[in-house]
Amino acid sequence: MDGDHFFLGINLMLVIAFNLFLQFVLVVCWYAGNTFYNIYNKKAANMIHAHWFLAAAQLVVGIVWSLVMWGTGLRKTPNLTAADIAACIPIGLCASLAHSGSVLASAVGAVSFAQIVKACEPVFAAVVGILIPPADIKPPLAYIMLAVIVGGVGLACVKEGKGVDINVEAFLFASMANLAAALKGKLGSSVTKALKSDKTKNMDAANVYAVMNIISFICTVPFVVFTELPTLRQEWDHAVTAHGLNNLLFNIGVSGFCFYIYNEFAFAFTANVGAVTSSVLNTAKRVIIIVASSIVFQEVMERNTIIGSAIAIGGTFAYSLASKAKPAAKKAKTS
């Protein structure tokens, strides 16, 4: 009997070790994909000044990847009804605006600045959580941390000897991305849970993201048509002449592939460990992106920028942990 317990313990330890290793691999791939995406996205944006088009083209790469996976049978094809697809459209629209806002913010400003502003995403999520029913009320400490985040971002925008120095266009696009991401999270949680719970629909985390990616592309196309179509051919020809067709296609293709892959790994990691842990690590990744982009693109980081970024990212980290106290408090109340 002792021998059985011993081998049972060994098996349990091996399972735990494997799960920890799997989560480690997911985080590494998520971080690497996100970092390389931001680098190649900025390179592509510097080549062609048609940034809504760039956002749409990146989504096409993910669509091709999904079709290959479904066509080869490596992944089950989603089995959705018209009602299911209709329920996903608002989420896909929000995903479109979140992605495009990030692309546009990094295109018109520094990658590091876009990441600093995007650290304010919890502020948007908290406001949306309160305004859109059912209300999602966080513990008081979490709301205190929101003030810390805003203060950190504000400090990062203060330049020594110049006062407040904000790239307004980049700030607005990054804020658009934050708001869209917050709405996507609020509107999408119940829909995606329902889809995942019905095994006949073949909607695991990877397929949920793949479907949202397709809808997101469809929602992005009208923005390309209305904002860039008249000058798109001219911008494309200019980019090809200045940088070469192969170089342009390479940066668009790699940025699109990295975007899709890092999101798929992030979805898989969140499905394994939960939203709070994922949110904490999502905050930590911004440090890597800011440092890497500053080195690659030689973006100057002043003292206030560094301190403000650290405060904002630290505040976001603390907000994620403080938010975790809500279910614990509920549990204690009911017991």
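That was protein one. Protein two is written in the same sequence-then-structure order:
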Amino acid sequence: MWFSARWQASHPVFAPTTEVDGYAQLSHYTATYREQGDGPPLVLIPGLAGGIEMLGPMARRLARHFRVIAYQLRGEDDCFALRRRFDMDDLVQDLAEFLDYHGLERPHLAGVSFGGIVGLEFAARYPHRVGSLSVQGVGARFESTLVKLVAGMALTGYPLPQENAFVNQFFRVLFGRGPHPSPQLDFVVKHCWQTDQSVMTHRFRLIRKRDLRPRLRNIRIPVMVMSADRDVFVSPSTVQELCGGLSDVRHVKLPAGGHLAFVAQPDCVAEAVREFVTEVE
């Protein structure tokens, strides 16, 4: 089957000749994963919504240099997983099992937003199992600002219509300053809504009052923290707190992209990760 260049440009996760999907049987769920590329192993941890599809643009670029493995967090493919309540510790243990499944001793990890918190918590508990950690869109704690308050109320209190144009404009704020191509925004809206709202709500509650500062001293591996000035969910002060609590840290300021820099600026984020991991190697 032939696909036009225009069609492929509007579907940035499509790479059938290089991507392989698989299923890892873990203790409490079956984790779908996507693997591509060759080189040192790099495990990607997705954010609060959108799953591994949202990581597609960045993963495809990283696959030029690494064996990239992105996996679905618990609840992403089955919202009924919420029948057995799980917390952050369970998600950390899921990641440990996932690495065991692939026989990975000390892979490099990269997490965005919610996935970055999972990665930091994992590194705090299992520092000997991580080669390096790169995070984007993460601070040491979750601050209460108006945008976060509105997002929290919406996620926890109201059923959201997926086709409501006003509601979907919220995603535009996550890109930060500057114009954003319509296909890019459509891509984010489409994949974010593939995550069940109940799952998004549960994940949001897990981090709403979470404070990483007491555990940062346990992270004894190289960590790269990427931040964007226009990130409405992560303030410069919480980024400074995160960097200040880590013993071996590199802070990279991204020129644009906001909270969704890994989607808006995948080349920039992927290149920062490549340089960092290459130096650590």
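The chain has one domain: 5-280. Keep this in mind for the problem set.
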